[in-house]
Fold these 2 entries.
Entry 1:
Amino acid sequence: MNLQHKGGVAIMLILLAGCGVSNQAHQTVISQLADAKHSLDKINSTLGLVANSDRDYESNLASLHTRLNDLKDKNAELTGQIAKLKAQEDFVFQSAGGKIDAKDFQGALEAYKEFIDKYPSSHRIATATNLIARLEQTLKTNRR
Amino acid sequence: MKVQSQKIILVLLAICVATLTGCGVSQSKHQEAVKELEKIKSVLVEQQITLQEIQNEERTIEAKESEIKKLKDLENSTFDDAEACFKAHDTTNAYRAYIAFVRDFPESSKISLAQDKISKIKWVLDAPIREAQAKAVALAQTEDLKKTAFAAGYEQGKDDRQTGGDDASKSDVVLRANAISSINFLPNSFPRRNYYKDYPVPRDAYIAGFIAGYRGSVSYASLHPQEAAELRSQNEANARMVNSTVRTVKGDGSSKGDAYAAARQKLPAGAEEINTVYDWSSSGSDWKTTGTRHYYCKITYRAK
């Protein structure tokens, strides 16, 4: 085999191995790409979003991020609101009662005392005092 | 040879070109597709995660909004929770919730409603207790009835033994028949008819008492020691049963009233009369004749 012949074979091999990809392998990638896009379209349609290009997919994702951040802000705001409401007189009084239901009489006693300290002008002071007396009696009996 | 090999190379080159153009894809085009796939995949993953997070946040917000609604009107929401339990027939939790409402909101305008519900639920919750109490009363009544019947039978059996010639040889079958026929002579105050039909337990107790009363008069000395021991033990048990609460007193006189008065005098203080039985004996040969009658009265009573 002469030099020219060898050169020809080398060019052929380079062409076959380095410059192209088999159609089958390429089709697999294309099919996976179609599947992924289909999944994205499905999610987007449930969210009422439309995507006509890859850029749309990215912008939809960005809007979802914005929505998530908004929700997180709202959540934090609600947490603050709950904390404020839980500081209200009714709730504090009712929470002390909840301790009685849970048979935590010592906890309830402390909670009612705390209530009296916190809301000395409340209209529930008499009830709280009465409950404190009953709880002290119960605890005394239990100790015996 | 040289020309031939050149031809072969050309053919092979043609095959390569055909493979590249027809059967294969250029590397750059393929790489572009791979890149796009990776990008779309990462968008997809990120979008799924974000969506999941959004849903979680929405759920939390929903729960918090509901909590805030409750907290803003604690009194009504606590009452509504109790009402919901009541409507769902969850009586135990409804009871707890109403009790808690009364305790936590004593000045509420709904207190009377809550108290009304508490008493209704209590009635339902106490039903098994009431049922058990009724059963216990019924059982005690049956036991009393049995004791009374046994005591009446026992006394009648003793009388029959004394008035019947002290015949120790009578079989249980005969005594049973005698007991049943003696039921017919019980006064109307004794539910004798029912002893046959509606009250088999006291009827059997009466018959058992009758036989025990009859046999109780047997002289132990005339029996085999083992039989005597068994009979003594049986008699003692019977006596305990008869004497526990139910006893009898007897009186006699020229009229029913005198006989009753004589028996009545023997009743201990606080005794509760259960039954009164009369009998009489005549000096004449025929009870229908006007011969003088002597009356007997037997009062069965429950000692206090």
Entry 2:
Amino acid sequence: MSVALAPATGLTRAGRRIVDVFTSPKSGPVLVTAVLFVLIFVAGGLRYRGFLSGQVFLNLLIDNSYLIVLAIGMSFVIITGGIDLSVGAVVALSTIIAARLLQAGWDPTAVIAIILLVTSTLGLLVGLMIHIFKVQPFIATLAAMFLARGLCYIIAKESISIEHPFFVAMANLRIPLGGQMSVSPSVLIALVVLAIGVWVLQYTRFGRTAYAIGGGEQSGMLMGLPTSRTKVLVYVISGFCSGLAGVLYAFYTLSGYALTAVGTELDAIAAVVIGGTLLTGGYGFVLGSALGVLVLGLIQTIITFEGTLSSWWTKIFIGALLLVFIILQKVLTSRRT
Amino acid sequence: MKYLGLAFSNRLFWPVVMLVALLAVNVIAVPGFLAITVNSEGHLFGSTIDIVRNGAPTLIIAVGMTLVIATRGIDLSVGSICAISGAVACSIILGSPNPDDPGVVGVAVLAALGLSLLLGVWNGFLVAVLGIQPIIATLILMTAGRGIAMLITEGNILTVESAPFKFLGSGFLVGIPVATIIGAVTIGFAALLTRRTALGLLIESVGINPEASRQAGVRARGLLFTVYAFCAVLAAIAGLILTSNQTAADANNTGLFIELDAILAVVIGGTSLNGGRYSLAGTLVGALIIQTLVTTVYTVGIPPIATMVFKAAVVTAVCLLQSPTTAAAIGRWRRRSPAPQPVAKVAVSR
């Protein structure tokens, strides 16, 4: 190309930089996801009246705050090349523990502490099973999923509503942002978790070790990185995030139910993958996963705005939009050969 | 001692032990558990027959799943394909004036299998041509598939009264349940096709290293299409059996979570989710363990609310026993205990 020979002007250099960033396997998918998100949002705005508003965007955050937290935990696991299928069941378990203990008159802070402890311990057990016994993550977390769902049934079969004033307040409180826009406390919690997730993964040794495990566990170990500790810890993080997501979900629905959040693990995995994380590990950003959640939420919002779809067309439509999105992402990030 | 060593080193050792242990629990709970009687119509009858009959759909799907997993893939859409095939067959049978005509049922079955073949090719297209990660590629059909099934049934549960169709799920042929025969034929066919030809080797090579096998001249793309299509057709067959057993097509619940059971059966049988080496015999044992597990819950009288916990415990036990760490620990223990005991155990053959 002539660019290589002629003294490159600032503009062409910038152009090439942009192309490079968009086609790199590291940042490309995330950027493409961001661009597509904006495009879909604008397209929705052109099609539906009242779509292109700040509050619609904030509602995406409000409705999906628990999923953002889930996806953050899932990102850690997937970046190390693992997977966690137990998160949906753990969310259900958390809501039901919350409902049951609050019903018994416990203090909300104690309840939340217990939930986080239980779910982190479950994550620890799964991590140990995967690390020490070399059980495949898919299966170990599937067993954890059965266990968590099973415990739900044992604790309570029926749905229990939560009437504790603290939980009700968290559900109804809206923090004004000016211009008639507001968010729920859950959104703030999710954003804090997001910030911590970004920091841990990008700026700490732990985060780098996680990437190293996904890129090549053997090499990471030979470099003297604490791979075993990190590998177990990512499942603890995922367990903790699932517990926290469960608490947020309890704020959101104000009930505990054994059959709630079925299939949420697939939503979380889809969000992480849409956000540009490779399931084989080694690549990915927490921020991308949060974007992935927003894309899934946006698809749901479009369906709500469409309004007239019957329940079966909704499912087909979600599948179709997911497909379009993944194909676009694939096409836009593929390097020209 | 040699035999014991051989048995321990066999991948199928612990799954078989687990299966035997589960059966033993049943025998202790219900002494006549293993008894097989012949009823007045000449049909075999007994708890073990129930296991091989009710376990057939999971087994059939698990066979397809084994091959998909061997290529380092996974197919989450099998449950939805079950629902679609059931819905197609039932709506065709219901739409015909004569539902008891074997010809009508034949057309319905062929239509269901044909549509599922297309869906399998679609999965294969997403994975092989577009290069989408299998879990996401098949997640699309898993989500949309239930919608398609509901579209076919128009949101209703279709109940069919058709003797030939009912025969598929609950009929008997020379005393053996038809579902069991279909299951046996499926696994036999898959074993012959992949183990008596080079196909199995090629599938494993794609799973171990797609790029290397491509350079060695293996047509990875065509193979991926084939395994996903095969898996979808098997899912359709399982869906027909399930639907026929319930005599109704339920778009929401037919084959719900069967993908997890099938994957579990494959992994319990010793096939790695990282692709490569696979074992159809292991899948058979895995599927039998899962169905025996369900039966055990009923015979032993485990309260329904504890079923899932029980399942988790058994799955965990099998995985931990199969783990290389456990094998190493047992190896150390065996070397340390010098007195060679008389060995009655025989190596488990494949």
